[in-house]
Specification:
Blueprint: H1 8-15, H2 19-26, H3 34-47, H4 53-59, E1 65-70, H5 76-92, E2 95-100, H6 107-115, E3 120-124, H7 130-139, E4 141-145, E5 154-158, H8 162-173, E6 179-182, H9 189-205, H10 220-231, E7 239-242, H11 245-257, E8 267-269, H12 275-279, E9 286-288, H13 291-304, E10 312-315, E11 318-320, H14 329-335
Parallel strand pairs: 1-2, 1-3, 3-4, 4-5, 5-10, 6-7, 7-8
Antiparallel strand pairs: 9-11
Length: 337
């Protein structure tokens, strides 16, 4: 029979691991190393511990739940983010609460209320106010995703400087001199970082950048709107760099519908490397970012981390060169693996 006096936290302390790791082992998770699994199982066997998720949560004044706050479910980016977060939360044995803000005026209030019902919150940067972040951090563990600054809160973000490397590739390798940027930096830390990297690449290349970005959203329909503004607005740029793949694909569709050739008449690039980027013709040059890893790393920090330990993690990104920027298919192949 199991020993009801032995808690999950006690087992974790004896094994020198986090409570979430003990939960993974007891649930048969494949994400734990064989050596670690053997050590935890030995302590579980010797102590007679038997997991009881609901009872454990009540005894330790825990909710047994983690929360994710993000703008909404539109597009493949947020779908991938949600799947990655859910996958890791299941491994930790917790439940999951979702809050899609949809730019709601009462988002701060709703997020603070959610913080009272979970043990940790993951919040996409720019979704709530700084004041709300501070209040949430006083209540529960907090991880801010895609934050621009390494502040007082734990963050997990992407290396957006690769967008600058892509801009330099267009300016130097292809010799393009008129580049346009599609994306709205206002309210989006990621887009702001990519716009700044875009400007920095122009400074390094000694090329005058455009005065302003083409300020549209991040959906495919926004790419079509951006194409109309760019292609109907006078002198056509040599290349258009979009803040994400969805807008890039919308822009390509509009350009092709006008009889333009990509990249001969207009080069186009994106950011994300969503599945469709490799399937369209011409293949979309982009920057690959590990969206699922962003979500799983965030959830793991919430499940394993200590409340007052602050960490800052930047995940690597890399160029994926395909035909839409003017690279030949043979050159694009090795970068596409």
């Amino acid at each position: 029979m199991g020993n009801s006096r032995v808690s999950l936290r006690w087992v974790a302390q004896q094994a020198g691991v986090s409570p979430a790791t003990v939960s993974r082992v007891s649930r048969g998770s494949a994400t734990v190393s064989p050596e670690l699994r053997e050590r935890v199982l030995r302590i579980i066997e010797e102590s007679g511990y038997r997991p009881n998720h609901l009872g454990r949560a009540l005894a330790e004044t825990r909710h047994g739940a983690l929360g994710l706050v993000f703008p909404g479910l539109s597009g493949p980016y947020f779908s991938e983010l949600l799947q990655g977060f859910e996958e890791e939360v299941q491994e930790s044995g917790d439940s999951m609460f979702l809050l899609a803000s949809h730019s709601h005026s009462e988002t701060d209030t709703r997020v603070i209320d959610l913080a009272g019902r979970v043990d940790g919150l993951a919040i996409l940067a720019g979704t709530v106010s700084d004041a709300a972040l501070e209040q949430v951090a006083r209540q529960v563990r907090l991880v801010v995703m895609c934050a621009r600054e390494r502040g007082a809160h734990t963050t997990v973000t992407m290396d957006n400087t690769t967008f600058g490397a892509l801009a330099r590739h267009l300016l130097v390798e292809h010799g393009y001199r008129r580049l346009a940027f599609v994306g709205n930096p206002d309210g989006s830390p990621d887009v702001t970082s990519r716009w700044e990297a875009f400007l920095g690449a122009h400074r390094e290349a000694g090329v005058v950048p455009p005065a302003e970005p083409v300020r549209v959203g991040l959906q495919q329909s926004d790419g079509i709107i951006a194409a109309q503004q760019i292609l109907d607005g006078g002198q056509r740029p040599d290349a258009v760099m979009c803040a994400n793949d969805e807008t890039a694909l919308g822009l390509v569709l509009n350009a092709l519908g006008r009889g333009l050739r990509v990249p001969d008449d207009l080069a186009v690039t994106g950011f994300d490397d969503m599945d469709m980027a490799a399937m369209v013709r011409p293949g979309l040059t982009t920057v690959r970012q590990p969206i699922r890893e962003l979500a799983t790393t965030t959830a793991r920090l919430l499940a394993d981390g200590e409340p007052r330990v602050t960490r800052h993690i930047t995940l690597p990104t890399r160029l994926v060169l395909r035909e839409s920027c003017g690279c030949r298919p043979a050159a694009a192949g090795p970068s596409d693996n």
